[in-house]
Each structure stands twice: as C-alpha cells, then as structure tokens.
Amino acid sequence: QVHKECESIIDELCLKSTKPTEDLTSRVENTE
Question: Which DSSP symbol is given to 5?
C-alpha cells in the first residue's frame, strides 16, 4: 500500500501518487 519511505503526511501523497500530479499539489497546499 504505502512505501516505507513515505512518512506521516507524505504517506498520504504516496497513497495518491497514482493520481495526477495536480491533485497531489493541491493536497499538499491544502495540508500546509
């Protein structure tokens, strides 16, 4: 499921790494 390298909040992004980068970027900004 999640890569070991993924940590905390980043693991969520890794989970959605399959989605478009735009979606990831939006989530990152939202998290911050």
Answer: T
- Is pTM beyond 0.90? Reply is no
User: How many Å apart are CA 24 and CA 19, to the nearest integer?
Assistant: 7
Terminal CA-to-CA distance of the chain, rounded, Å?
24
Confidence of residue 28 (pLDDT cuts 50, 70, 90): low
Amino acid at 24: L
Boundaries of every domain in the chain? 1-32
Q: Are 24 and 16 in contact (CB under 8 A)?
A: yes
